[in-house]
Design goal:
By secondary structure, the protein is mainly β. Helix content is 2%, strand content 49%. It contains one helix and 22 strands. The protein has one helix at 90-94; strands at 11-17, 36-44, 47-49, 62-64, 68-76, 98-103, 111-116, 124-130, 133-149, 155-163, 168-169, 191-195, 198-199, 202-208, 211-218, 221-229, 232-238, 254-261, 269-278, 282-286, 289-298, 309-311. The strands form three sheets. The chain has an 18-stranded antiparallel beta sheet that branches. Strands 3-4 form a two-stranded antiparallel ribbon. The longest helix is centred in the N-terminal third of the chain and has 5 residues, at 90-94.
Length: 312
Amino acid sequence: MADPIIRLRQMALMAAVEATAGTFVLPGAADALEVGNVTITPTEGEEVEYDIIRPHFGANESVLVTRYRKMAFRVGLAGVGVAGALPGYTKLLRGCGMQATNTPAPDPDPHTLFVPIGDAFESLSLYAVVGRNVYKMPGSAGNVKLEGNAKQLPWFNFEFTGAWDEVEVLPAMPATAPVFQLPLGVNAANTRVKLGAKFWPCNAFSIDLGNTVTKQDLTEVDNTEITGRASTGSITIRNTLATTHDWDALIGSKLAFELQHGLGATNTLKVAAPQAQIGKPSFGEQDGLQMVTLPLKFIPTAAGNDELTIRV
């Protein structure tokens, strides 16, 4: 009998929030994720060469002095089907150092608000099944980037780092029951980008939460931590006459920023930043029109941990 082959279209990825950081929690069918562009690094870590001399040429052995695992994937940037319901990616944003506050119906304004935090971070147990091979990753912490381009679908791009565990083999693929909304296209009907007091014709946007994720392996310590955050982004918009907006003159200025995707009652998501500092502009072209890309730094106010929010 030939060895079984691994079919990459037979894959399941799940995530569960851990009660104790690093203690694996087995996810269930309802913890399944709808993801794409999955990259699993089964073994990551630092190698040190055993640097000795010999009376002859030849390579020296290397020793793996720390071992961990990484997973990266994307999730459709979308809202929810019922106002006030938790989006399917809630656990993932919590694992990226964001606190989720849910206001369900019958509140007159049902929604979920995600805000960045500076301590009491939550960790995830990630569970990936690829052709019945199981890759567990307890103690996971990560970062997220939001990206969208006109006439395309927008995405959350997640990258997580966590502990290494031995590969297991299941007798069958697990049952999954993910609850996610189909994302809407980035276009005039669905998307609005506001910088300052004006909505701009936008060709592309990106928002990087900017977490620093550190894998520590010391005596008595073997975990993954979020140790810093510097949120950045960019928008590419139609350029204007300098008498209308002189972007060079606005370098360093801080303007309110807002991205709203989905203009209906439910399948909506809004990113808001009170202070987006404008960086050095650069030019490009789209359909024969000059475009300008504005790099942004999302600066917190004096209150802290408020540089951006995600409202679903």
